[in-house]
Amino acid sequence: MAKRGSTYVCQSCGHEALAWSGRCAGCGEWNTLVETAPAGAPRGKRGGSRSRGPAAKPVPLRDVAMPEVERLRTGVAELDRVLGGGLVPGSLVLLGGEPGIGKSTLTGMALGNLLASGAKVLYASGEESAAQVRLRAERLGTAALGVPAVAETSLEAVLATLEAERPQACVIDSVQTLHAEGMSGAPGSVGQVREAATAVMEAAKRLDCAVVLVGHVTKDGAVAGPRVLEHLVDCVLFFEGERERHFRTLRALKNRFGATSEVGVFEMRAGGLVEVEDASARFVADASSAPGSVVLASMEGTRPLLVEVQALVAPTEIVPPRRIATGIDRNRLAMVIAVLARHGGPSLAGADVFVNVAGGVRVDEPGADLAVALALASAHRGEAVRDADGRPAACFGEIGLTGELRGVAHADRRVAEASKFGLAPVLGPAAGEGLTGLATAATLRDALRAVKARAKLSKMPRAA
Ligand code: TYD
Ligand code: MG
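A: This is the predicted complex of the input protein with thymidine-5'-diphosphate.
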């Protein structure tokens, strides 16, 4: 039963209802009703004119006072970089990710470092008991063991603790476990989560405390929770990777105080998360250079990253055949398969197709198209993509629907990164012409031809 006073507001049309129902009576949309707490201030009469407050005086932006904010450096370099230089006091950061990915580990490490650097911190855990939090901290070292922690699921208690302790940085793990007293609904329901986040944000701004809200998201982001908070918070970080693998990437989906293009790469070890500074070296060293494997010169934010794209093509009787993509977008895979069939590549209509970005990394950029296409063609032919010296070949580029190869951002940095690891020349779109170490192709057909020619070269016996 709803508690007295709260209403259910449709998130798509604004219709208000007194009880929850699956379908909005106003617009007919499903699952759009969200419990909303009654506003504290009495409202004006319906339809009556609004009372007028004093007028605000607009100020030209150049005259707006801009106080220098000292950021709180978490000491986890990759996290600081993704945040745009550290936590901003009074800001609210949402850290999303699947369960078990390492959110508590990351925030525990950050608070430990902040504490060691003299900041006042607080860890509020609703998910685990204090003893469980301690168990993790023991793995993370002495700094993390000094972090003051409370195990609390009541929103009111957490707010009161914030008020009493006045930390400079606080982690609430997780927002789904917080329960606001004034509202019905289980912890983790959209209404509860939104209510909790709004109250925490108000406290964060007032107390000038940087708060990191941890939130669970499933793969499709469908579970009630963090997604509804994205517009509310200052910064949304997403921690992802395959739980069974070592590598994790941290990216900013939204950041009011920095760029959203930055990505941090971590590795989960026995003693916590370790920053991977030279990720390219790892991935290239692991690249198999067998048929079906291609090195992609990708960009992770502003940083070039070499990753291995692997493909397997296997004949099948199943209709429709399987298309399984790990680490790349499934729709882009379907598009690449279609373009290959029409523009000089093999038809994969009767084959199961598996594409995987090795190491559990996710590449979300159109520049991966060419690598996927070449890996598929190579897997289909059973011929490795190598350069004249037998090393794995690197490439990048977006594939258009008419089979053309389109330019992508930062061609120079991609080529430079590949050259650093001896993988030049890199096969890429003609838009980056003039770069040393770049072999250009105008179309997918040209690129496939170039790869075939190279394969022939590498098979020829060398003159001594
Ligand atoms: P955790 O931070 O609890 O994940 P989340 O808060 O996102 O649910 O940790 C996830 C996994 O990491 C857990 O299964 C154990 C593992 N782990 C390590 O491998 N090394 C470590 O030092 C720690 C603390 C955890
Ligand atoms: Mg956790």
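The first strand starts at residue 7 and ends at 10. The chain is about 25% helix and 25% strand.
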